[in-house]
Structure formats: C-alpha cells, structure tokens
Amino acid sequence: MCRHLAYLGPPVPFGDLVVAPPHGLYRQSWAPRHQRHGTVNADGFGVGWYAEGDPVPARYRRAGPVWGDQPFADLARVVRTGALLAAVRDATVASADAEAAAAPFAAGPWLFSHNGAVTGWPRSLAVLAGELPPAELLALEARNDSALVWALVLHKLRNGDEEGQALADTVLEVAAAAPGSRLNLLLTNGETIAATAWGDTLWYLAGPGGRTVVASEPYDDDPQWREVPDRTLLAASRTDVLLTPLKDPEEPEEPEYPQVHPQGAPGTDLHQPLKTEEPTA
C-alpha cells in the first residue's frame, strides 16, 4: 500500500525524480516492482517541496491517480526544488476524505508520509489517540490510520523530540498497540530525512554532490541503490546516512549497533557498515 520518496540535493525539476525515471513514482502508481501489499496506487497522490529561503513547504495533492492529472505534469516539468517528499496512495479503507487523506501531510517545516496499514484500525489505536490533546485530534486532516500516526509523530516533534526519535517512538508505540502493523514512515524538514522500514520495502541512494534519495523502491537500475533492512530507522542528510536497528516490542532485547554511511569519506565504501558486527532487529 502506497509508495513514497524523499529527496535532498541540488535543485532539479521535481519531474526528474518523480516522472522521468524509468521506474519512478509516477510509474509505481500502476506498476510497482517491489510492493508487498496491493498492486495499484491510484487512490490519490501528492508532492510537497521546498523553495529556496522558505522553510515552509508547498504541497499539491489530489484524490485521483497521478497519471490522470494534467496540472501535475506541468508542475513536475517547471518547478525546481532541492528537497521534496512525494507519495502515491493505495487506500486501506475507502473514505470520503478525498485529497485530505493523501500524503504528504504537513505542519510547519515538516512533510510526512506513511506506507503501510495499522491492524485493527481504528479500535487498536483508541488508547494512543486518547493521549493526544483534544485540539490535536480535532485538527486531523483525514479520518484514516496515516493521519492519526502523523498526529502522534507531530505531537512528539512539537514537544521537542528529534525527527528520528519521534518516528522510532511512534512506530514502537503503534506496533505494541496494533501488532502486525506495517509502519514505513517518511519525514523531512527540507534539510534532513528520517524514515523507518517496518513491514515493507525501503531503499536509499547516496551520491556525490550532496544528493540523497530515500524511497519505497529504486526508481531506476543504478547499482548504488541499497536496501534498508526491516525494523530499521534511517536518518539522512545531504552527506550522511545512518541506519539504526529498531527493536520489535515483542522480541527480547539485543545490543544495537548503528551503521554510519558517510558520503565521500576517504577509503570508505559508502554503503557498507563501519562496524563488523551484524546488528539484529
């Protein structure tokens, strides 16, 4: 369910990332190559991007399939950005929320997307929802699991949590309340990217020139794409990628060994752990 992508790097027309690649997000809306659940992502789409000098992103979202939206094709051709988050949606449950249910969700400097589904929705998250201030519940953009997961993340961000910590804590809380949920979360503030691999595929491409892409699946056949192990938190900037194992709340505790992947470090393979130990999820 759903495919998403985040980018940090030199400014480019966002169509170069979403439409032009042979297996880009545009094509993934009807022919994903690595999607484990669902086959067509035609229940909405969205893209959020940052303009130079403005920390608050712009968004364009629609309820229908991306391939049928002519204004999107024009925007993708002419709008240039050095940071974006885009998604195509396969709805878990049909709703009347239309484009409000499509990622990216936004608040302040942040853009957010959820690839997955919460088991037992909505009853399974009733307790967690009750811990949010009423005003934040009333401000939900849509009545779906992704919107509530975003509210949980946003509450932590507004209370001062770092982006990666907010995602990791939310995933562990939701996984404990709703075992079996798929919780691939993606978050950017225009300067960094945080993401989780929890139940579906996640890949990253780290290249020279301060270019980082994090996506549900590769948009081309570049051999530099690397898959993120399941049960992992990814934290990336334009120059570094850090992978940290996440512990399933139902599994016993094990030591965790972060993996740092600096771009361009002398004598370092960009995509191999700097430690020799094999981390366990």
How does this structure look, described?
The chain has a domain at 3-118 and 185-262: Aminohydrolase, N-terminal nucleophile (Ntn) domain (Glutamine Phosphoribosylpyrophosphate, subunit 1, domain 1). The chain is globular, with a radius of gyration of 18 Å. Mean pLDDT is 86; it is low at 264-281. Helix 6 (145-158) crosses helix 7 (163-177). The protein has a 7-stranded antiparallel β-sheet with strand order 3-2-4-1-10-9-11. The protein has a 7-stranded antiparallel β-sheet with strand order 5-6-7-8-12-13-14, with helices on one face. It contains 7 helices and 14 strands. A hairpin with an 8-residue loop joins strand 2 (45-49) and strand 3. With 281 residues, the protein is α+β, with helices and mostly antiparallel strands. It starts with a strand and ends in a 19-residue tail after the last strand. Catalyzes the hydrolysis of the gamma-glutamyl amide bond of hercynyl-gamma-L-glutamyl-L-cysteine sulfoxide to produce hercynylcysteine sulfoxide, a step in the biosynthesis pathway of ergothioneine. Keywords: Glutamine amidotransferase, Hydrolase. Residues 272-281 have a biased composition (Basic and acidic residues).
